[in-house]
Amino acid sequence: MGSGDEIIYGEEGMDERWVIDPRHLFVGPKIGEGAHAKVYEGKYKNQTVAVKVMHAGETPEEIAKRQARFSREIALLSRVQNKNLVKFIGACREPVMVIVTELLLGGTLRRYLFDTRPACLDIKVAVGFALDIARAMECLHAHGIIHRDLKPENLILTADHKTVKLVDFGLAREESVTEMMTAETGTYRWMAPELYSTVTLKQGEKKHYNNKVDAYSFAIVLWELIHNKLPFEGMSNLQAAYAAAFKNMRPSVDELPRDLAMIVSSCWRENPNDRPDFTEIIQMLLHYLSAIHPPDRPLPPPRSFSSDNVVFPPESPGTSALMSSTEGSPPKGRPGTRQRGFYFCFNRCYGSPEENRRDGQA
Q1: Which domain of life is it from (predicted)?
Q2: What is the CATH classification number for the domain harbouring 130?
Q3: pTM here?
Q4: How many angstroms separate the Cα of 193 from the Cα of each of 43, 69, 119, 170, 350?
Q5: Residue 183: which pLDDT band, with cuts at 50, 70 and 90?
C-alpha cells in the first residue's frame, strides 16, 4: 500500500486497450541497446514505431525482476498522456516482452547540444526546451510519479528539432536506492543530493525524499541548456555528486541573466522543500519569455494536460538512453523511404517454432 507520491504497480494483467497484436508488428534495424532491452525501428499497423524488446533474464530471480520492471513501465506509460511525453502505443508479453512507442527522429538532447558546441543555443530556444521539459514533469507529478533520472540523455527531440519529449520514466518510486544507483553512467551529475546520501539506513527503513528531486535535476538541465557546457565540468561523476551533496556546490550562475539565475538557483536549493514545483517553474519561465519576447508576437497560452487517461491515436516513453548508440545521426527509417520487405515479421523473429509453423500454414 502506498501513500503520498508513492505508487504501487500491479505486476499481473494489462489493460486490453494497450495490448498489441504481434502478428501486426514488424521489426527493422536495431537503433539502440541497453542493459535491459534492445530497440528496433519497426512498423505496427502501417505506423512507424520504436520496438523495445526486453531482455528476459537467465536466472529465476533475474526473470522475475525483469518481468516486474516491465509491468511497472507499462503501468507508468499507460497512465499519463502529454504532448511532451513520448507516446505509448502498446505492449505484449508473448512471445517476448515488448513495448511499442512513438519513434522520434531528432536524437537525444545530449547529442543535439554536443553537435551545437561551442556555440550556445538561442536563449528563446533554450527556454522553450526548458518549458517542454517542465510541462512533462508537471504532468508526471500531477499523477504522483517521480522521475528521479531527469537528464539530457532522457530527453529526445522531434525530427524538426522544435519540441523536446521526456522518455524513460525512471524506476518506480518504491524501488530500492541500491537499484536506483545502478542507473547509467552520468546520472549522478544531475541527481539531487538527497537521492544518494551515504547515510546508512536502518534495516527496513526507507529513504525519505519527495518529487522535489526532479526540480533539482531540472535546474542542472536548464543550466546546461543555457551554457551548453557539461555541469561540474572537470569533475568525475562521483566528484560532482560529492561536491553537490557534502559541499553544497553548484555550477556558477554568474553569467546568467538575473531572472534565469533566480529560477535555476531556486530549483537546486539544498532544502528540497524550498524548491518550487513545476507549475511555479512554468510560470517563472513564461514570465521570463514575456520580458524578452517582442511585443508584437504574443506568447501562446500555457499548455494544459488532462488528468484523465485519454486514449490518443496509438503511440509513448521508453527508448531514450537505448538510442544513444546511434544518436549521432537520426534513424533513417522515415515513412516512405523503406522498400517493402525491409521489415521482418515479429513472429518470424521472436515467435516459437510452433507459432511459426502455424503462421506458415495459415
Answers
A1: Eukaryota
A2: 1.10.510.10
A3: 0.74
A4: 41, 25, 30, 17, 42
A5: very low
Domain holding 48, by residue range, is: 16-105+308-361
Boundary residue ending a domain (292, 321, 336): 292
Which amino acid, 71?
Answer: S
Residue 44 lies in a domain: yes
Count of beta carbons in the 10 Å neighbourhood of residue 340: 5
Catalytic residue among 15, 115, 132, 149: 149
The 10 Å Cβ neighbour count of residue 11 is: 13
pLDDT tens per residue, range 256-274: 999 999 999 999 999 999 9
Q: Is residue 81 part of a domain?
A: yes
Contacts of residue 280, defined as CB under 8 A and 6 or more positions apart, other chains included, come to: none
Annotated catalytic residue 308: no
Hey, which residues does 47 pair with through a beta bridge?
A: 44
Enter the C-alpha cell of residue 334. 522515415
Under a CB-based contact definition with an 8 Å cutoff, are residues 99 and 54 in contact?
yes
> What is the DSSP secondary structure assignment for residue 205, as one 8-state letter?
P
Please indicate, yes or no, whether residues 120 and 237 belong to a single structural domain of this protein: yes
Within 8 A by CB and 6+ apart from 269, the residues are 275
- Domain CATH code at residue 329: 3.30.200.20
Exposure on the CB side of residue 291, measured as CA atoms within 13 A: 12
Q: What is the DSSP string of 283-307?
A: HHHHHHHHHHS-TTSPPPPPP---S
